[in-house]
Amino acid sequence: MVIQPHDLIQLTDAQNRMITPSTIPGWVHESLKRSPYVVVRRAPIENGKVPIGVRGADRIQRFAAHVSIDAIEKHIRPEQLISKKEWKEDKRIDLKAFRSLDVVVKVLKDYQLEWGPAGSVGFELASGQPTVNEESDLDIVIRGNENLTLNNAQTIISELGKAPARIDPQVETEEGAFSLIEYSRGTNPIMLRTINGPILVNNPF
Length: 205
What we know:
single chain; alpha+beta; five-stranded antiparallel beta sheet; MdcG_N
């Protein structure tokens, strides 16, 4: 099992599998009771412990912890969430962030890039719990490859700008992640977020 940042994990016995030196807030237990899904954080996986984050009902409610790999019941990558276009059947399809998924599908289909939704949209599609609102951005994860030239990046950003919601595309590579918006500006250095923290690089690939 290859586990990467932004992946979603369904836990077994979620409320009792958190590994953390901190006191667990009450809202964390309530959140996991409603939906036992967590998001993989960008940090090292050590001794079989996966860094995860718990989402609360409020935007400011985020809790970092670890879980053992054997606590994972289901593992979902962002790109799996678009394969069946299930958002089209969602009664909340009229929300701008969901409508923007169709724009991303249309824009990226010619570039042979694997991608999927992250953030609140990804969490809702995976867990079934309403987390998206009318003001939500659409965060997407793109798996970087040789097709993501500077010219292509600039075209993609221009086209994504026509979507109903603001789209924040992050490009994932073997070394870390970077903002496609920042990359499209063609200036150096650029910030690369790695599992050991952010660094500045001239070539994010």
